[in-house]
Design brief:
Helix content: 25-40%
Strand order of the largest sheet: 3-2-1-4-5-6-11
Distance between the termini: 39 Å
Strand content: 15-25%
Structural class: alpha/beta
Shape: globular
Length: 313
């Protein structure tokens, strides 16, 4: 690509970014990462050079991208917090894309979400749609990957469902639990991202796995595979949220947000597209049944600790 040989991954010391970086290194690519955790212990030794995001210093951000051929963007925040917000993430993403354009980056592979919409009442899905628009406006060739739920060794959602099943006598299901999810294995997403980084033209891909579950089926399957039988009790979304809020305060974390419940129940984590991944969650849970959910995984603890690598579940 006109002499450029660097591939930049946002958050390569984190979750999905780590798998993308690993795939790129296996392919013999030169890799850097943009990160808020440049002091974090690197899972790649000195193979991946870290650069600060520098959203407030666009000139420095542009310098970090000066030799980059492809940018793989996983940057986002899951919920609003006093230290970070969706609005911050949208604004910072726009700065990132502008810096990439100014630096001459030749392709962007961007991780979004299924069913984004700027008309959505949910800030998460609205913000994701705004970022996609900023990417299109950048005029940089792109691939947009739209996953639903990711699962893998460093996963939070699937692990914490298993943890809850192991520790509580019943499991609360929001409403009837018949809304659907299509989880994709994080390394399948990484494989797809790297393939799209080598592609040309523009693409939008629903990055879903090969299995579709109702939420009730998903929880039941996890319970059976880890050998923990629990009664699944339908509760109103408000009761479910307040119960999760109290548990979150005890665990010093955010288990689930109102928006996540609303998006889930609105079937926004399900599409009619063919699967992009091949790894089945049922088989993965079976393989990791003895360790899954043994330890609670905290989103906020990961964000506070900028030094340690993410632990596997």
């Amino acid at each position: 690509m006109n002499g450029r040989d660097v591939h930049a991954v946002t958050g390569a010391y984190g979750y999905s970014g780590k798998y993308i970086a690993a795939r790129l290194l296996e392919a013999g690519k030169r890799v850097i990462t943009l990160t808020n955790s440049s002091e974090r212990e690197s899972p790649f030794g000195d193979q991946v050079e870290p650069f600060a995001y520098n959203f407030d210093r666009p000139g420095e951000l542009r310098k970090s991208l000066k030799d980059v051929a492809v940018l793989y963007n996983t940057y986002w925040v899951r919920f609003n917090h006093r230290s970070f917000t969706h609005a911050d993430a949208v604004r910072n993403s726009r700065v990132l894309f502008q810096a990439a354009s100014d630096a001459g980056v030749q392709r962007i592979v961007h991780v979004s979400i299924t069913n984004p919409s700027e008309d959505s009442e949910l800030e998460y899905f609205r913000g994701k749609a705004q970022i996609e628009r900023y990417l299109r406006e950048s005029k940089i060739p792109y691939s947009i990957l739209r996953p639903t739920v990711l699962f893998g060794k460093e996963d939070i959602l699937i692990n914490n469902i298993a943890w809850t099943l192991r520790h509580l006598p019943v499991f609360g299901i929001f409403g009837d639990g018949e809304y659907k999810l299509q989880p994709i294995y994080v390394d399948d997403l990484a494989e797809l991202a790297v393939a799209q980084g080598m592609a040309s033209g523009e693409a939008i891909i629903d990055a879903i796995g090969p299995e579709t579950f109702t939420y009730r089926e998903l929880v039941g399957m996890i319970g059976r595979q880890i050998g923990v039988r629990r009664r699944l009790v339908s509760v109103s979304p408000s009761i479910g949220y307040w119960t999760a809020l109290i548990m979150g305060q005890l665990l010093d974390d955010v288990l689930v947000t109102r928006e996540e419940i609303a998006g889930l129940m609105a079937n926004l984590l399900c599409v009619s597209s063919p699967p992009a991944g091949t790894t089945k969650l049922t088989e993965w849970v079976t393989e990791h049944a003895t360790s899954l959910g043994r330890r609670y995984t905290s989103e906020l603890a990961r964000r506070r600790d900028r030094l340690s690598t993410y632990q596997s579940n």
